[in-house]
Amino acid sequence: MSDNEALPPGLPRLINDRYEIESLIGRGGMADVYLATDEVLSRKVAVKVLRPDTASNPMVVNRFRREARAVAGLSHPNIVSVYDTGELPATDFHRDRLPFMVMEYVTGHTLKQVIASGDIDAAFAVHVTRGVCDALDHSHHKNVVHRDIKPANVMVTDAGHVKLMDFGIARAVDTSATMTQTAAVVGTAQYFSPEQARGEQVDFRSDIYSVGCLFYELMTQEPPFTGDSPVSVAYQHVGEIPSTLSDVKDGVDPIFDPIVSKVLSKERDDRFQTAGAFAAALEDALNGIEFHDEQSAPSTYTLPIYGTHSETETSFIAQSAPHTSQHPVFAEEEAHGSERRNKSNRGLIILLTIIALLAVGIASFLVIRSIQTEAEKRAPVAVPKVLEMTEDDARAALRDATFQVRVEHEFSDDVEQDKATRTEPEEGAMASKDSTVTLFISDGSEQRTIPKDLANQSETAARDALREAGLEVGEVSRKNSATIPTDWVIGTTPELGSKVKAGSEVDLILSTGMVTVPVVTEMSRKEAEEKLGAEDIGLEAQFDEVVTADYAEGTLFKQSPAARDDVPQGSLVKISVAKAPEPEPEPTEESSPPESESPDSEESDDSTDESSPSGEDSPPSSGNGPPDRPGPPRENG
């Protein structure tokens, strides 16, 4: 399959760590066939996998395995080879193990497609029949009877080679014992033999009859018998003679008519005794050599088992064969001997008559008993009650009643999960033996409860819990949470604990592991601390005092991270708290000299200046005094 094309549910892309599935190339009644690559031998193979809907039927599984075993023992260029077999394990998508087989990959067309495409000449028909007969000679030599020869089971490759396939209902013939049990009717109605139609045991000559039907269709584009139903076709196989090839289709050489007449004989002893003999007769006819059946006719003479001669016949015999003995003693002895022989013959005749009557009576009894047994076998039986049984117990009860079982599941509000709810046909109904009864198993109530304990679980655990509850995971969204770890479940939509329909989708809400910072400015310290430390926020607070004249002292005027920012759980939020600036110290007042100064004061000033040249102990002087008080005037020059 292409990389973007999904495989069927439960089918791995790589089977047995060796066969990589590429594409679906065929679909049969019980299995799908995929093109695959054998990674070990680097070759294309065909992988035939039993479908999950048929894997629960033991008859189908046994037929599939029987095909693998039958073909595995055959090795012939005209038979599709089987390389490997195995079983796929059970999964959530299929409860049963799925058998598979790896076969030779053949490119071409089935004989059914070839026949449908148009006219086929005699040479091609004989060539195909020869290929099928060679394959059957090999399988018959291995004591394997195919039992389902038909155009759909014969492949003609692109190179013109003939390949026989599908030994799904093949049987190994036990030649060491007498088969007395009536076999089931198997095969395809238009191609099976009269003994298959009667349900009798088949042998190699049954396959040869089916090949004759196949050759008939190759030459005329229609099978020897057709009807509205398989039953009507089966009756024709048993009791009607097919029209000759030359009568059905103009242009067919009548030289083939006696060959087809022989191979389609109702009695298997009258047919060709090997597939190779049939193919050889066809090839001779293709070369202009007429077929003559050398089977000798049975003798018409029969020895009487019992009976008496009349007196007329006795006198006639006496006259035509008189005694010739001359001595009367000999004549008398012969007369007495003849009388004793007549008495002895009468006793033997009476004994044989009694034996014959007994034989007829026993045969009649056996025939009547056989008819009664067959009627009993075909008589319908009642479907047993299986309500609220486990699946295994219900299967056993139905099989004990001679039914085949197919299991299906359904929801039920009245029957607990994994118990039987009903059957189809229903309980007490009359059905034929060996017919299939559908057993319904409860999947529980259709209403499912979303588990309440999903909260604070990982996403993987939540998915598993929903699947076990019979629900599907829908969309996944995320939401901030102060307590739930990252990617763990906060809640669901619909809500936890609510009732929903089985198989519904439930959306998961997971934690981001982040928290949205709330607004705490203009709160008091206590309020801010309580707000940040609340259970649904869970953040730490750190207060930093900042000197500012813009806010009243104690005001929370700034936070970092900012409000409405998302931060990891348990993060630290720094909050700036306003602090008033300290007041500046007021200057000390000094005495000022009088307005009129004496020369002594000037000198004193000068001397002061001189005594403090560095100016460290006196305030700096300038044209103006200090800003908060006037300084003394200074003279210029």
TrEMBL record:
Source domain of life: Bacteria
Annotated Protein kinase domain residues: 19-286
Biased composition (Basic and acidic residues): 412-425
CDD domains per the UniProt record, alphabetical: PASTA_pknB (cd06577), STKc_PknB_like (cd14014)
Domain PASTA: 377-443, 444-512, 513-579
Record-linked Pfam families: PASTA, Pkinase
Sorted UniProt keywords: ATP-binding, Kinase, Membrane, Nucleotide-binding, Repeat, Serine/threonine-protein kinase, Transferase, Transmembrane, Transmembrane helix
Residues bound to ATP: 48
Catalytic activity: L-threonyl-[protein] + ATP = O-phospho-L-threonyl-[protein] + ADP + H(+); L-seryl-[protein] + ATP = O-phospho-L-seryl-[protein] + ADP + H(+)
Biased composition (Acidic residues): 597-609
Uppermost EC category: transferase
E.C. numbers: 2.7.11.1
Entry-linked InterPro entries: Kinase-like_dom_sf, PASTA_dom, Prot_kinase_dom, Protein_kinase_ATP_BS, Ser/Thr_kinase_AS
Disordered, as annotated region: 412-431, 560-637
Residue spans crossing the bilayer: 348-368
Regions of compositional bias (Low complexity) in chain numbering: 610-626
GO molecular function, a single term: ATP binding
Record's protein name: non-specific serine/threonine protein kinase
